[in-house]
Every structure is written in C-alpha cells, then in structure tokens.
Amino acid sequence: MTITDVANAAGVSASTVSYVITGxxxxxxxxxxxxxxxxxxxxxxxxxxxxxxxAGVLAVAVxxxxxxxxxxxxxxxSAAAGAARELGFDLLLVTDDEGTSGLHRVTSAALADAVIxxxxxxxxxxxxxxxxxxxxxxxxxxxxxxxGLASVTVDFAPAGRACLTHLADLGHRSVAHLGPPATPPxxxxxxxxxxxxxxxxxAGERGVKAISRPLPPEARAAEPRAPLSAPTAGDVxxxxxxxxxxxxxxxLVVHDExxxxxxxxxxxxxxxxxxxxxxxxxxxxxxxxxRQRIRPTAVVLPAAELGVLSVRRAVRQLxxxxxxxxxxxxxxxxxxxxxxxxxxxRHG
Length: 348
Prior knowledge:
Layout: H1 3-10, H2 14-22, H3 29-42, E1 57-61, H4 70-86, E2 90-94, H5 101-108, E3 114-120, H6 126-133, E4 137-141, E5 150-154, H7 157-169, E6 174-179, H8 187-191, H9 193-206, E7 209-214, H10 233-243, E8 251-254, H11 260-269, E9 279-284, H12 286-290, E10 297-300, H13 303-318, E11 327-329, E12 332-334, H14 343-347
C-alpha cells in the first residue's frame, strides 16, 4: 500500500495525501476528512527506511476537546511513567486540543518511538496520522477495529449490571443514572454505551424503574470543536431538584467524576442524607473516590492497570513483537459507605 494508492482511492493527488500526513500545508476540512477516511479504510502505513536510533521516549496523547477525567488521567500517567521508567523510557505528553497537529509534530520529527492515545474512538481523527506515521501505537478507549494498531479497551458492561443489581438487592425500585453531558458525542460517551445497555437490561430483569440522563450542561459548547466545560454547582443543583421532586429515585449512579463532589454537596445542602435518604454509586477513579467525605460505593476505573498495560504493549512492538490482540480491562465494583437499604424497605 502506497501514498499513490491512497491518492487514487481518495480522488486526490499524492502530494495532497502527503500534506495531510505531514501537516506541512493547510488542506480543506472536507479533503482532509476524505483522505483520513481512506487511510483508515485501506490501513495504509508509511514505511520507513533504515531503522533509526531510539529516542527512548513514549508519547501519550491526552483526550482532545477538553474531555478530561483528571483523577483517572493522574493515575494513568503515574502508573505509565513507572512502567516506562522500568523499561528505560520517558513519557512525552501531547496536549493539543485539535488532537492531530501535535501527533504530526511528534511523529514527523521522530520525537517519540511509539504513541499511546487516550480515549480513542472508532472514528478518531488521530488514527490516520498514526497509521501513516508507521510508528507503533496503542489506542486506549473504545477504538473498534483499526488495521495494525494495538488497543486496550475498558469493558463497562459488567459494571452497569453490577450497579443496578447492588441497588436492587438493597430494595431500591427507582434508580437514576447520571452520565456525562451528551454533546459533543466524544469517545468517552461511545465507550459508556455498554454500561447503559447492561444497566437498563438488569433493571428490566429486576423490575426496577431506571432513568438515564446526561448531567448539564447538555450542550457544553455551541461549536463542535470548542473545548468542553465541566458542570457547575448550579447546573447540578437544578438537575437534582428536578430529578428528586415529588419523591424521585431513591438511588443515583453518578457517571462523571468531575460532577461527583457537586452531586454529594448538593444533596447535603438540600438536607438529603447519603445513604439514609439517597444511595449514591460513583463511577470514578480511586483518587476521586478517596477525596469524598465518605468512601462511596463505586465502579473504580482501572486507570493504573491501563497505564501499565499500554506502556508494555508499546514497548513490545518496539522490541519486534506484533501488535497483540485487543486487551480488555474490567472495572472493579467496590462497596463503600454511600449505599444502604432503600428508605421504604428500611422503614417498612
């Protein structure tokens, strides 16, 4: 597979394909998208010449668009840095919000030997850049099928069922799942699909009323490429006041670690005791869980495990090993102090 093959399939010149890969010239968004989709579909990878000396660096591209889970990222980076150090590598963070220009710089200038991409989606614009660079890469998130790139995914489906089953066993008959804002539809939302589907399937089996709604702001930005903003205390308060009016659910599953402290704080301000009046299950990093006033019952995101596994898979490729089959990590469900028997059961 050559640049000419990509150019012919995309209906553009070979130089246009080259400019898309290297970022040396500005290409119209429509043409760039067509070339990137063709690179992705054909699985084109740029072939290098003679092997170059290692830089001793692994690049880690953080999620674009400001879609950040800071507790999880801190744990990921800490574990990845330790694993990299043991294997003789340093880490280089790639932080541009566009997602592709930073990778262009890193790969074209050979600043890193391999690239780890966080929150990679199945139509991620960073994938064609990686495919074209020819450098080893590991996608972390919900990347789907990508030709020749290693991946590590998080299977949220068991966690969704575990949350509902735990609450149903405590007698809760109405449960609300509060997820991240619904727009823009980033990779993190796609990766949560399995959680929501299994959550509602388990609710149907147990006869529990289950509600799923995004935490505000539902539209974080008017422009699809604008940075995202976290919900404010006022946003969360309005959401909970509406949700809990006239009784409402007796249990909440909070699926946004940035919003968790706001939810817990709002419930306290409204005189709702946790878990006496409302049980709360968090989906968050261990770091965020440990910062709460009480240790929450939680689906603990396996950030450290992902960091170590990603680094090892990247270095394995550098040492001549093939891109392994997609690795899957399942979050742990840990019972804490934020869930208890439903009020009707406890007082009945």
